[in-house]
Amino acid sequence: MSRTSPSAPPRVALVTGASAGIGQATALALVKAGYRVFGTYRKSPQRKSLGIDYLYCDVTDDASVAAAVDEVLRVSHRLDLLVNNAGIGLVAGAEESSVEQAKALFDVNLFGAIRMTQAVLPVMRRQKAGRIVNLSSILGVIPSPYSALYASTKHAMEGYFESLDHEVRAFGVRAVLVEPAYTRTAFEGNVLHADRKLDDYQSARSRAEEHLRKVMQDADAAETVADVVVRAAQDPNPQLRYTAGSVAKRVSMLRRFVPASAFDKSLRKQLGL
Ligand SMILES: NC(=O)c1ccc[n+]([C@@H]2O[C@H](COP(=O)([O-])OP(=O)(O)OC[C@H]3O[C@@H](n4cnc5c(N)ncnc54)[C@H](OP(=O)(O)O)[C@@H]3O)[C@@H](O)[C@H]2O)c1
Fold first, then answer.
1. How far apart are CA 34 and CA 181, in angstroms?
2. Cα dist. 72→40, 53, 56, 120, 121 in Å?
3. Which atom of ligand 1 is nearest to the CA of 84?
4. C-alpha 250, offset from chain centre
5. Given the residues 35, 41, 146, 150, the one annotated as active site
6. For the segment 111-150, what is each residue's pLDDT rounded down to a tens digit?
7. Backbone angles phi, psi at 168, to 5 degrees
8. How much distance in Å is there from the Cα of 19 to the middle of ligand 1?
9. Which of 229, 231, 248, 241 is nearest to 18 (CA)?
10. Helix orientation angle between 148-168 and 111-127, rounded to the nearest 10 degrees
11. pTM (2 decimals)?
């Protein structure tokens, strides 16, 4: 997907969760790259950015997803790029979340992306072109104690989109994954907490929370991730995975080349486990 020539109509992008953080930075970077950008919100953004057409969309709601995609098509008659960005975190011992809480998290992070994807694929297949960029995480390829459910939503996202990519490339559509490490956004403030805390996990959970607070201070800027999303959207020969930022790149390399026992030992050491 190369840049649009001056005479061609702009390519059309839909970014979920564009009210803040990585989604907002991505929507702005796509405007800069020449896309017509529709960005979704649940809570109306405090400051709306110029160049973005805002739409309400709750990715956990089928009707809301269908209405948002219909509106993009009503206005622009095509859709070249979907960025599945909407997502939330959860810091808790794995045993400390009820199944209801686990389902609610998956409903946003995994099923939200699947709902959006199913809504846009018919039009992308008709166009015989389209790209779906998914905000996974480096936690989609490594274990994450005290974020087991969050990590499992991202592992599931990796499995789903890696498989989907093989099916839809026959229609000119590609699905790719972007894997940031820690990124400075409101993410940490928005994380869900255990809905049935257990005393046995209290001190280790607190250390994990403290670790998250610490690493967030030196984390990558949302713009770093946004630039990688734009690259993933435009890459003429898309890779399946794009790490975003130096930490994600380093962790991904270590995961591949360091023996699992050494990798896991260092992970536990970091979290004081
Ligand atoms: N920040 C990190 O360290 C990091 C690292 C790796 C991956 N990621 C991934 O990057 C993505 C963006 O995270 P962020 O850091 O930008 O977090 P953020 O600042 O908390 O933004 C999250 C966005 O998701 C939207 N959202 C949440 N629930 C939604 C729902 N049910 N329907 C529609 N939109 C919903 C929010 O919209 P409203 O505010 O309008 O509700 C918001 O725009 C997530 O998928 C996250 O897992 C983040």
1. 27
2. 11, 9, 11, 10, 14
3. 45
4. 19
5. 150
6. 999 999 999 999 999 999 999 999 999 999 999 999 999 9
7. -95, -10
8. 9
9. 229
10. 10
11. 0.96
List of residues 6+ apart from 25 with CB closer than 8 A:
221, 222, 223, 225, 226
Domains and CATH numbers, the chain: 12-270 (3.40.50.720)
Which tokens sit at 201?
């996990």
pLDDT of residue 203: 97
**5 DSSP assignment:** P
The pLDDT tens digits for 190-234 are 999 999 999 999 999 999 999 999 999 999 999 999 999 999 999
In the annotation, is 41 catalytic?
A: no
Q: Which amino acid is at 158?
A: E
Pocket of ligand 1 (CB under 6 A): 16-17, 19-23, 41-43, 57-60, 85-88, 108, 112, 135, 137, 180, 182-183, 185-187, 190
Contact in structure between 242 and 177 (CB atoms under 8 Å): yes
